[in-house]
Every structure is written in C-alpha cells, then in structure tokens.
Amino acid sequence: MINPVQKQVLQLAVKAGEIMMQSGAEIYRVEDTISRICAACRIPNVEVFATPTGVFVSIDPGDEDSDVLTYISRIHSSAVNLNKISDINEFSRVFTTTDLSIEDGLKELDTIAKQKRYPVPVRLLGAGLVSAFFCALLSGSLVDSLCSGLIGVCSFALSIFLYKYDINYFIRGFCCCALATVLALLSVSLSIGSSAGSMVIGSLMLFVPGAAITNAIRDFLYGDMLSGVARMTEALVIAVSLATGAGIVIKLWSISGMTTQTASETGNMAVALLMGLAATFGFCIILHAPAKNMLVASIIGGVGWGVYQLCNDYGSIVACFLGACAVGLLSDISSRVFKQASTVFTIPGIMPLVPGAGMYYTMLELINGNLEKAAITGAETIFLAWATAIGLLTIGSSIKIFLAIRRKILRVTK
C-alpha cells in the first residue's frame, strides 16, 4: 500500500535533485542532498542514482505494510545557475534542521525553480568583462581589450537570441564563436585592433564548457563513471563545435591571404591578479552566482590566476594544478565561513584556469596543417584540464581527511 506522506517526501527529494542537476551541480552533491532530505523524514533505506540526463530514487520505509517507491525524473536541459544551487543548499539545511512541512517545502522548491536569471543587460555586461579582461590577460592592448569586450557582448547577445528559439548549445556555440572570430579579424583588418588571437580567445572563453569539463573529471575520480563519460562527451562535443566555428572562419580568412596573430600571457603579477579578479566577476554574473558572494568568488579567481602566473616557470601543468589547489582551498574556507555551497566559489574561481586558449591554438594548428603540433597542443590542453580537476580533488580529499582525524582526536580527548 502506497503511503501518501512517503510519496510526497519522494517527490520533494527528487524535485530538489532535479533543480540542482539542471543548474550544473556535481553528482555527489545531488545524491547527498536527496539522501539527507529522505533521512530527515525518517526513511532509513534510500537508493539514489543521478546522471546528467536523469535522477532515479527508490525509498523503502522498512515497514512490512509499505511498498518500495521509485521516482524517475528526466533531465532535458541544463545551464549553470549557481544561485539555484545556493538556494537548494540552504533549503536542504533548513528542511533537515527545522520542522518545515513537506507542503511548504514543495512550494519553496517551486519558487526556486521559477527563479529568473539576471536581466539581459547585466549578463551582457558580464560577457563584456569576461572577454575584455581575458584578452588583457593574454597581453592584448587596451584597444584590443575594448574590442574584445564589444565582440563578447555581440556574440553573447547572439547566444541569448538563439536560446529563445531552442537552438541547441552546440549550434549556438558554433555560430557565436564564428561571429566573434569574424568581428575580431575585421577589427584587425581595419587597423582597429592588433591581435586577433587575443580577441578571439577572450570571446571564446564565454562559451567554453569549463564547469562541465571540471565536473566530468571530478565524477571520474569520485567513481561516477557513467556520469563522467556523459559529461566529458558533452564537453568535448561543445569544445569541438566552438573551435570549429572559429576554425572555419580562420580558414576562409587565410584563403583570402590574411594572417592571424597568436597571443602570449602577461607576466606582471599584480596586473594578472587584478585581471583574473575582473574576469571572474564577469563569470559570476554569467553563471548567476549569488550577489552577496560575487566579490569573494572574484577574489578567489584572481588569487588562483595569480598562483598560476607565479608558478608558470615550473610548467603550465604544475601551475594549473597549484592554481586549482589555491582555488579549492579558498573555496572550502569561504563555504564554511559564509555557510554556502563550495560550488558557488569553485566554478567561477576555476574558470580563468580552464584551457580555452589551448582549444583555439589546437584548431589553428589543424587549419595550418601542422598535425604534429596540433596533437601536442591538444594533448597539453587535456592535461591542463586534468591538472585543474585533480588540484580541486586533492584539496577536497585532504580537507576531508584532516576533518576526520580532527573529529577522531576530539572524541578520544573527551
């Protein structure tokens, strides 16, 4: 016999997990949230299986007269929304520690699900900041940075326009990067800008699936192989579509006899830190991070990029690892200080370290017919992504071990 209360609990838990999955949360966080909600309602046996395309939950109250209930929710689309992840994290804390009713909980989840993103002008401002300051990070001139900011605004506006007509992310990314590349090359040909490479990469970073790549590798390392494969496949297809959009335009441009320029990262530490901070702030807007946490997340991103620049003499892979360690450590500390999900700080903070430039240069070498160099650049890009994810995981695991030892010592001393 089906217990109506248990059915409501199952619906509540699955809805919370569904919102988190659609907002770009990690698999372990989704499964942990669902399990905590069910445990708070005194349901002893809970099995949760979450993937990027669906959430499966079964509960068994353990009574002789109770049936096993299973609920499946299909995830049709997803877009990173850190504010929703934050709100669900807060909801889970309140629901498990107070006497909030299931009915009120469902109403609160409905409110969170209907939450709107920042207004379009604000998001366009964030896109401009990301493009302009990433161009500056790659030693682009002031004029190049301003051009890149305007190009980023135009390409992101196209993305919003295509999204309204349900154009899938792969086609949107292809069209937006093609537009950004055309505008960058036109700027150089009109002698407005000087480095097309810096401007293209600045705009390309708006669409790089950095969160998907990082979460995919973290899923692999946590043992969620199916989710890791699904997310990595999606991230790779998106990355190829972005690089192809830029590559086709570059190829057509080169046929006409024009040339493109490459970019090199700035070496000034103070400037790099400030540029990383500003670029991360732009990502906070685009990813809809909670307004109260934007400054802290931006500082974390700036510090992570500063560590990367400081350690770059030891190799980009080592620098990426150490930069990710800095982001992971500061994000964990901030999440405890502000009682917030660490994802709110981690995802924006890690974005400057995502190897978007590597994608561009890999495609550029392919267009130029340098297959060996393209393979080397592509492999290095993959290793940089792995180094970033392993850096985050290393810090996360170290903190868990430290806290476990600390709790054990406290129990012994008591």
How would you characterize the overall build of this protein?
By secondary structure, the protein is mostly helical. Helix 13 (316-337) packs parallel to helix 16 (371-413). The chain is built from 16 helices and three strands. It starts with a helix and ends with a helix.
Query: DSSP strand (E) fraction?
Result: under 5%
Would you tell me the structural class of the helices and strands?
mainly alpha
- Helix content estimate: over 70%
Strands, total number? 3
Q: How far apart, in Å, are the first and last alpha carbons?
A: 47 Å
Strand and helix order: HHEEEHHHHHHHHHHHHHH
Topology:
Blueprint: H1 4-22, H2 27-40, E1 45-51, E2 54-60, E3 69-74, H3 82-97, H4 102-113, H5 120-137, H6 142-164, H7 169-189, H8 196-204, H9 210-222, H10 225-255, H11 269-286, H12 294-310, H13 316-337, H14 343-350, H15 356-367, H16 371-413
Antiparallel strand pairs: 1-2, 2-3
Helix pairs in contact: 1-2, 1-4, 2-3, 3-4, 5-6, 5-8, 5-11, 6-7, 6-8, 7-8, 7-10, 9-10, 9-16, 10-15, 11-12, 12-13, 12-14, 13-14, 13-16, 15-16
Write a brief caption for the model.
This protein has 414 residues and is mainly alpha-helical.
Keywords:
3 strands, 414 residues, 71% helix, globular, three-stranded antiparallel β-sheet, mainly alpha
